[in-house]
Amino acid sequence: MTENPTQHTAEPHAAGAASKLNWLRAGVLGANDGIVSVAGIVIGVAAATAAREPILTAGVAGLTAGAVSMALGEYVSVSTQRDTEKALLAKERTELDEQPEEELEELAAIYEAKGLSAETAWQVATELTENDAFAAHVEAELGIDPEELTNPWHAALSSAIAFTLGALLPLLAIVLLPAHLRVPLTFVVVAAALALTGYVSAVVGDADRRAAVLRVTVGGVIAMAVTYLIGTLVGTAVG
Asked: 93, exposed or middle or buried, with CB in 10 Å at 0-12, 13-18, 19+?
């Protein structure tokens, strides 16, 4: 059967798709961190006092600190990864300049290890090297696209935004709700949001949906319960 030449034109490359899935998963996890962190803070403060001002102050402080911390952490982590990628690319370019024959043999061996016959592997390696030796080697040996290196600024901004969006949910819920409904309804809102993030992360990672939802939701509820208990004890002791 003749393959339609346009059949796969809209499909992403595997590496690109994996990269996008990783960013989506990081965004979901960042939002989940924002929900749990700020929910724990505001519920703990709400257990100690019914006044809206200290709850809002603590929530905003927690949101700001968490977003900045997430951004800095991602920036440092991704910067390190990018530096490593650039070092590997530079090393590969040097090896191609100084040892072209050895590198050609290495590339052929990689394709032979993937299941090609020795003759076919050598032909593939030769043709790819003649076309673009550097691109062929970094893709086969390192799995890196030189044109799509990780960007630490994008990672930092994405993490900060995801954390902030997640954190706004419990913050707005506990500030806008009537005093006598703040804590119980915030528990409900946060649990529902955590269930959603757990489900989305499971879909993205192709994992068990039920287990992911249960794990994330139960963990968040336990965190809120603990901070509520601590807030109650502190409020009682101070009062």
From this structure: middle
pLDDT digits (tens, 9 = 90+) for 165-221: 999 999 999 999 888 888 999 999 999 999 998 888 888 777 788 998 999 899 999
Annotate 27-61 with b (16+ C-beta within 10 A) or e (fewer): bbbbbbbbbbbbbbbbbbbbbbbeeeeebbebbbe
- Rounded CA separation 40/105 (Å): 58
Contact in structure between 67 and 164 (CB atoms under 8 Å): yes
- DSSP assigned state of 138: I
pTM of the model: 0.74
From CA 108, how far away is CA 61, in angstroms rounded?
Answer: 57
Torsion angles phi and psi, residue 4, rounded to 5: -70, 120
